[in-house]
Write a structure and sequence with these properties.
By secondary structure, the chain is an alpha+beta fold. The protein has one domain: FomD barrel-like fold (Beta Barrel), CATH 2.40.380.10. It is built from three helices and eleven strands; from the N terminus they run βββββββββββααα. The longest helix is centred in the last third of the chain and has 20 residues. It starts with 8 loop residues before the first strand and ends with a helix. Keywords: Hydrolase, Magnesium, Metal-binding. Its EC number is 3.6.1.15, 3.6.1.6.
Length: 176
């Protein structure tokens, strides 16, 4: 698979299981890219919803994507600390200048003190019925949710102390 270059500006495309576009982040700068991981940064980037509405992100963020994990993680740098938004999703692919993934509705919001809440379980059940998520997808998503919660609780990977700040520093250097 092609991978983006460090310093390259890419879009992020979120789709739903039925193939319809869900959301597009206009510009994210790649700060690290390997065969399995892409870490990007953005700040006040334009986001376009599936219905055409747009909005602008409010704070700098570091985004973590993996080709083997069924989730992605956004670490937002706010005045009171790092807030995380975790999407249960397909692994990403890089295609035509964009990181692309399928959003499977389930989300985890993590606060600076590492407490968290699960979000959108009703939306997941509804979309699972409407879009006929296969049983195997449900099993994969539940297993990856468990792994994600383990990482949060153990403060591992993107949740380890200093991870977001380190990559934000690299992002800041690239954007000078």
């Amino acid at each position: 698979m092609e991978i983006p270059a460090e310093g390259e500006s890419v879009q992020i495309h979120s789709y739903k299981h039925n193939g319809h576009i869900h959301r597009v982040w206009e510009e994210t700068v790649v700060v690290k890219a390997t065969e399995n991981i892409v870490i990007g940064g953005n700040d006040r980037t334009i986001v376009t919803e599936s219905d055409g509405r747009t909005w602008v992100t409010r704070e700098p963020a570091i985004c973590y994507f993996h080709t083997r994990k069924w989730f992605n993680i956004i670490g937002m740098l706010r005045a009171d600390g790092i807030h995380y938004y975790c999407n249960i999703s397909s692994p990403f692919v890089f295609d035509q200048g964009a990181l692309k993934y399928i959003d499977y509705d389930l989300d985890v919001k993590v606060f600076p003190d590492m407490t968290y809440i699960l979000l959108d379980e009703d939306e997941y059940r509804q979309h699972s019925r409407e879009m006929n998520y296969p049983g195997v997808i449900d099993k994969i998503l539940r297993r990856n949710m468990d792994h994600l919660l383990f990482l949060i609780e153990q403060q591992k990977g993107p949740f380890s102390p200093g991870f977001i700040e380190r990559w934000y520093g690299k992002y800041s250097q690239l954007c000078k």
